[in-house]
TrEMBL record:
Pfam families: ADH_N (PF08240), ADH_zinc_N (PF00107). GO terms for molecular function: oxidoreductase activity; zinc ion binding. This is NADPH2:quinone reductase. SUPFAM superfamilies: GroES-like, NAD(P)-binding Rossmann-fold domains.
Length: 329
């Protein structure tokens, strides 16, 4: 089968595209013909050796995928050939024509959901959902600030925040990105490239501060948020797409009485698979009722995976980037 291959940690243009052994389904696994692969920021870090995980090389990158069941192992009874599924691989390998994964980690995809959108639903929306539901316990009527609100996980947080009844402030680096955030439900908009974020937050919250911050960016924006939290607020640390990992002055948490909360979605899916499955079912229900959707920016052929990784790490995405083995160069 064709696959994207990381032979050594190296710049993105060193990714190879070629033949890779066809996987087989173990007793508790299912073999999936991949329809689409969701692109995520860690994918681009991983193949360059810049992520905390360091897989043995060579390996096939990619974790988030949708596809059709090709075969199942002897112990698998809840899936059959032809079923539409979405999954998250804990051992990468999604950037290929086929992938074999534990059947228990696969979730059926309703016919109403296109496969390319299903592939973009797990990590971006799953992370935002877990962050706002389990980690922040976001309540209706609270104020939610979403940084990087036009990226895949940022847009997801805007949609999910609205679905949970919050007042959503979207922060972006351009007017074009803010327009997209507004289309996805944001109530208030801040261009933090041209406007002072701290001043805007104080005005929009009447000096109270923000109840929940969803921060996948880090850097200086995080620093501003540490000084603009409401009492009993929750500052969610989701990632560092801006490149800089900030240092937190813990005295602010004491004086202002708020919490800094880490969000590691991958660990959650492994630690509590039942809650993860419940979350995904709720997301799929929300999708079908129109509360959330996947905004796809660009779809790339499998052979152009390096381009997709470059665009996500350079923060060019407006929503979700998708790779498809079903389209040609």
């Amino acid at each position: 089968m064709k696959a994207v291959i990381c032979n050594e940690f190296a710049p993105l243009d060193q990714l190879a595209f070629g033949e890779w052994p066809l996987p087989v389904a173990g007793n508790d696994e299912a073999l999936i013909k991949v329809s689409a692969i969701g692109v995520n920021f860690p994918d681009a870090l991983l193949v360059q050796g810049l992520y905390q995980a360091k897989p043995e090389r060579p390996f096939v990158p990619g974790a988030e995928f949708s596809g059709v069941v090709e075969a199942v192992g002897d112990n698998v009874t809840h899936l059959k050939k032809g079923d539409r599924v979405v999954g998250l691989s804990t051992h990468y390998s999604a950037c290929a024509e086929f992938i074999s994964v534990p059947a228990a980690r696969l979730i059926p995809v309703p016919e109403a959901i296109p496969m390319n959108e299903a592939a973009g639903l797990i990590l971006a929306h799953g992370t935002a959902h877990y962050a706002l539901k389990q980690r922040a316990n976001l309540q209706a009527g609270e104020t939610l600030l979403v940084l990087g609100a036009a990226g895949g996980t940022g847009l997801a947080a805007v949609q999910i925040g609205k679905a949970m009844g919050a007042r959503v402030i979207a922060g972006c680096s351009s007017e074009e990105k803010l327009a997209l955030a507004k289309e996805n439900g944001a109530d208030e908009l801040i261009n933090y490239s041209s406007d002072d974020l701290q001043t805007q937050l104080r005005e929009l919250t009447n000096g109270k501060g923000v109840d929940v911050v969803y921060d996948p960016v880090g850097g200086q924006l995080f620093d501003v948020c540490t000084r603009n939290m409401a009492p009993e607020g929750r500052l969610l640390v989701v990632g560092f797409a801006g490149g800089d990992i900030p240092k937190f002055p813990v005295n602010l948490a004491l004086v202002k009485e708020y919490a800094v909360v880490g969000v590691f979605f991958g660990a959650f899916t492994r630690r509590d698979p039942a809650a993860y499955a419940d979350n995904m079912r709720e997301l799929l229900d929300w999708y079908q009722s129109g509360k959330v959707h996947v905004h796809i920016d660009t779809t790339y052929p499998l052979a152009n995976t390096a381009d997709a990784f470059a665009d996500v790490i350079n923060r060019k995405a407006r929503g979700k980037l998708i790779i498809s083995p079903l389209i040609n160069v």
